[in-house]
Amino acid sequence: MLQIKPILAALKRHKAGTILIAMQIALTLAIVCNALFIIQQRVDRLSRPTGMDENNVLAIQNRWVSVDGKDTAPLIKADVQALRQTPGVQDAFATNSFPLRGGGWSTGVNLVPKNEGKSTAQTTLYFVDDHALAVYGAQLIAGRNFTADEVITADPKDIKSTAQVIVTKALADKLYPKGDALGKQLYLGGKDIPPSTIIGIVARLQVPWNGTWSDNFNDNAMLLPVQLTSNYTIYLIRAKPGQLADVVNSAPAALLKTSRMRVISGDRAVRTYEQVRGDAYKNDRGMAILMGVICVILLAITAAGIVGLTSFWVGQRRKQIGVRRALGATKRDILSYFLTENLMIGVAGVVIGVGLAIGMNLWMVSQFEMARLSIVYVVVGVVALLLLGQAAVLAPAMRAAKVPPVEATRSV
Amino acid sequence: MLKMTHLSKVYRTEVVETYALRDFNIDVKEGEFVAVTGPSGSGKTTFLTIAGLLETFTGGEYHLDGVEVSNLNDNARSKIRNEKIGFIFQAFNLIPDLNVYDNVEVPLRYRGMKALERKQRIMDALERVGLASRAKHYPAELSGGQQQRVAIARALAGSPRLLLADEPTGNLDTQMARGVMELLEEIHREGATIVMVTHDPELATRAQRNVHVIDGQVVDLAEDPRFHQQQARAGAPA
């Protein structure tokens, strides 16, 4: 039975409670929509592939002690040899960084010398050798790998460009949208820096960062055949299947056996890729959990508010319910009255809440470089809040429906 | 119209059984105006709540408008209350959140009546009790007498076969009470069946027939010694 008009009339006489619950629903909707959106973004980020076969890869961060950076080339070469000969190790190489490490090199890339135009794309630079693709487990989809004699040894400050580079497909497509990047040239500097030729394209390799600032070049990576001489060296090691746990212990031991003039210590010194991923997304995971907890608490408080107010109203209107029953209302009419009343407050709340949700998102877009809120989250939030309201009101509404008609004759 | 035969109503707790009505017999014909009187606690209000299907009874039979009601389910009882019975309560029992118009509309909405017909019936009923001009007022803005008139309009709007009034003037001063009684008499003259519970002997005399209830039973006043004792205590002739 249609009861909207009398319910509206009754609600007008109970403005305070009605407005409070409607505003609570509105605020909950606004916060929950945005929180769900943030959670989804974090979950999307957590599940981004690095382009590597992560299950068997280990990273060791090594700092040389009492050795000049420029003198590290033979030491690094010996280390890599030792690692490759360690039982359980399939392959290894030295590098400056790796996907999800948290720090690395980035630069602009152009199709003309840099001082003749703006960068076409932003990319990270990984300095690697001819073993890198095998260690990454990266898929070479066009061209070829580096050869051993293409790998040069250089000090970081002397590196301007290399004759050959391998790029990810994302970077290749950005530079050459027609898909014809292989064999083409690119510039990492001005006129005085020689161009590099793209000799290979890999399917995917993520940048070392996972923050929002690198979101627009997340898969733009460039491999340069350079063995860096530096006080700080990272070894990426690929273990044979099933032997990673052993290599975690044997690889650092092999390095220390080669030379003790080094420091391999700290939480981040020896990490499997599972740990690398865990460390990289710690904040994202924490934020997603925090947002989830906030959502649950807010929804629980809103549901409790609805239960509380409706229970109060049922108690307050007990005699009135008895009168309605005496005048012919069925139990279902009474149940429907309270459900409809809650739905009307809920609809008012979600209408305001949709505006608040969009406004809150626009503010975050302007302040925190957040993405625009998808309408799907608003729709899901609206449906969830209305269903929550109906579920919360059900118990007190059923209590109301049980008020007997004889209540009408009882004095208050 | 209303016939109760050997009807009983027992309130049971773990240790005691209390008979509110015992072997209660009454037969109200269509078009009658019956006053049910009796002292406090005699069972007259219990009779009215059972007659109005607000409560169930424990034993006996109750025929309302030819229908035996003891086996009806809750929905069927609601339907009968809505369509066949008009209630007038001592405390008026208007819904404070609704204005006069909306209050009178309540039982009509539960009947699923169309808006146009509802409007016609509401305005007719309010005209009849002389309160058409107060349709937009809220109960709190009306005097007690006016509120009871609204309650009567609400009872009349559904054109019930039976009007049940529980101390309809109990909360009113003499002047307002007189007005309400005149209205009830007028409604009766137009053909309505009215059963009015009252403890006021003066009001009872204005009904066509008096039924006296003592200790949950209908008694013949002339023959019942309890009535004579009661009268003696009150210092009045039997």
From TrEMBL, chain A:
One GO location term (cellular component): plasma membrane
One function term, GO molecular function aspect: transmembrane transporter activity
Location of the protein in the cell: Cell membrane
Domain MacB-like periplasmic core, chain residue ranges per copy: 52-248
Keywords: Cell membrane, Membrane, Transmembrane, Transmembrane helix
Domain ABC3 transporter permease C-terminal residues, every copy: 293-405
Transmembrane residue ranges: 20-39, 287-314, 335-363, 375-395
Membrane topology, from the record: Multi-pass membrane protein
A Pfam family this chain is assigned to: FtsX
Annotated InterPro entries: ABC3_permease_C, MacB_PCD, Macrolide_Exporter_MacB
Similarity-based family: Belongs to the ABC-4 integral membrane protein family.
Name this protein carries in UniProt: Putative ABC transport system permease protein
Organism of this sequence: Dyella marensis
Automatic annotation (TrEMBL), chain B:
Protein name, per record: Putative ABC transport system ATP-binding protein
Family stated for the protein in its record: Belongs to the ABC transporter superfamily. Macrolide exporter (TC 3.A.1.122) family.
SMART domains listed in its UniProt record: AAA
Domain ABC transporter: 2-238
Organism, as annotated: Dyella marensis
Keyword terms: ATP-binding, Nucleotide-binding, Transport
GO molecular function, one term: ATP hydrolysis activity
Keyword Transport: yes
GO cellular component: plasma membrane; transmembrane transporter complex
Pfam families tied to this protein: ABC_tran
Matches recorded under InterPro entries: AAA+_ATPase, ABC_transporter-like_ATP-bd, ABC_transporter-like_CS, ABC_transpr_LolD-like, MacB-like_ATP-bd, P-loop_NTPase
Presence of keyword Methyltransferase: no
